[in-house]
Amino acid sequence: EAAVTQSPRNKVTVTGGNVTLSCRQTNSHNYMYWYRQDTGHGLRLIHYSYGAGNLQIGDVPDGYKATRTTQEDFFLLLELASPSQTSLYFCASSDAGGAGAETLYFGSGTRLTVL
Amino acid sequence: SQWGEENLQALSIQEGEDVTMNCSYKTYTTVVQWYRQKSGKGPAQLILIRSNEREKRSGRLRATLDTSSQSSSLSITGTLATDTAVYFCATERGSALGRLHFGAGTQLIVIP
Questions:
Q1: Residue B5 neighbours by CB distance under 10 Å
Q2: Cα–Cα nearest to A94, from A40, A38, A41, A49
Q3: Which of A54, B42, B70, B81 is deepest in the core (most CB within 10 A)?
Q4: B3: closest CA among B66, B50, B71?
Q5: Distance (Å, rounded) from C-alpha A49 to C-alpha A55?
Q6: Looking at CA atoms only, how far is residue A98 from chain B in angstroms?
Q7: CA angle in degrees (0–180, nearest 5) for B110-B8-A108
Q8: How far apart are CA B7 and CA B3, in angstroms?
Q9: Beta-carbon separation of A103 and B50 below 8 A
Q10: Digits of tens for pLDDT over chain B (112 positions)?
């Protein structure tokens, strides 16, 4: 089974703080994603990547940067955190089996609180 | 039913009952995926149904897809307390990979 590991599990920062969320997948998947999940809403795509050095913009990218350093590692950066970025963040990977047909494997999430 | 910015739906049933959750989507898709998210975990795919299948079964799960009405459903027969979770449908958005759109989800509570 696909393994996606996120760290930290919980993070508290202050407004204006600098935060990096980490994600590692060990299944040689090409695609990796960052989503945020807020109460009452589904998952919203922030950024995704189809390989080391590649970055694609998702649906809610404002205030976020991302970097894919290797096939395994994908980072989400909040350089000036704001309270509106308080959320549950999920990383996922996929083997991209075709448009809409890829299976996403999710990590367990990082809960970020911005005070 | 769930789609896009709709609020999270909630269902509460007794263990052993059957349940059906619905999903409507706005744009053309050839694939609908259903995911389940248990408390404290990330979502996990349950079933993927393609437009040429109309119905797909996996154990106690049954998914349907009606492209003419742009809707999909997920049914669970003989629910268990362990089925308590949030259930999401997800559809493709255009031909670009990585553009799955998730619905707001249905919170299912199965009372033992």
A1: 9
A2: A49
A3: B42
A4: B71
A5: 5
A6: 7
A7: 75
A8: 9
A9: no
A10: 555 434 468 899 999 999 999 988 877 777 899 999 999 999 999 999 988 888 999 999 999 999 888 889 999 999 999 999 999 999 876 555 557 888 888 999 999 9
What are the CA-CA distances from residue B20 to residues A95, A99, B35, B64, B88 (Å)? 30, 27, 14, 10, 13
Which one-letter DSSP state was computed for residue A78? E
Cβ contact (<8 Å) for A41 and B8?
Answer: yes
Distances (CA, A) of A77 to A20, A81, A85: 5, 9, 11
Nearest neighbour of B98 by CB, restricted to A39, A56, A107: A56
Looking at CATH, the fold of the domain delimited by A4-114 is given as: Immunoglobulin-like (2.60.40)
Optimal mutation site among A41, A55, A90, A103, interface B, most CBs of chain B within 10 A = A41
Cβ(B49)–Cβ(A107) under 8 Å? Answer: no
Q: State how far the Cα of B91 lies from the Cα of A19, in Å rounded to an integer.
A: 31
Structure-block tokens of residue A51: 């390989």
Name the residue facing A99 among B42, B97, B104 (closest C-beta): B97
Q: What is the DSSP string of A23-59?
A: EEE-S--SEEEEEEE-TTS-EEEEEEESSTT--EE-S
